[in-house]
Amino acid sequence: MDMSLAWAAGRNALHRDGFQGACHRVLRLFARAEFADGDALRERIRVLFHAPLGVYVSQAQREGSALRLEFDVASEDITFTFRTLERVLPEARVGSVASRVFTHRVIARDAH
Question: What domains are defined for the chain?
Fold first, then answer.
């Protein structure tokens, strides 16, 4: 996907449809994975960030031998994300999927 075209399309939708129309193009996917030990966890993190799925990770947090992940995914890439997550990190369990809201866009829009 050409990110500059996607940005322009999202920006046009923002001006045409208002804030909510542009925001639903990006989704937040939350996942958690449990591991037996720290070595297994470190290996899975390495594999995850070397896979194409790694570019979607917006936040990763280690809690003991568990890994909490947050992905920012374009709505048209959600199927790819689920399939790749299942292949790369089979221990992961998806907690939820929600729309991503960018508060800086609201502030910028209100300033004009």
Answer: 25-111 (3.30.70.3400)
